Amino acid sequence: MGGLGFSPAPRSVFRQFRETLRMIQFEHTVFALPFALTGAVLAARGIPPPAKIGWILLAMMGARSAAMTFNRLADQAYDARNPRTTGRALVTGILSRRFAWGFLLAASVLFVLAAARLNRLSFLLSFPVLILILGYSYTKRFT
Description:
Elements: H1 9-23, H2 26-44, H3 50-74, H4 76-81, H5 89-92, H6 97-118, H7 120-139
């Protein structure tokens, strides 16, 4: 097909996108969204404005994506030795460590930006929260 000017790039991009969603277990993020929204409704004592809901959802997606990506990076050596996890994208090389670090940075920026759009306190707390959710990848080994 290459002789016809067709490129396998779209298939590769789709596979990378699919593997990224698998790496961060996106379905678990979707499952957790109602809990985040319930917290928002309780905190607002009613339904928050749509823009607030959007920023809350983006903050949650950014935080969880950053945490899961960092966890995969931190555990890559363990995953390579565990028969149950040898098929993970970072272990097999489907996704590179460089890509994962870039994705981690983007997800972290999304989290901080969304927190800043919510309010000043959320923005200020986003930094220690980011440290906590990323640090879990190491503390889980002895807690």
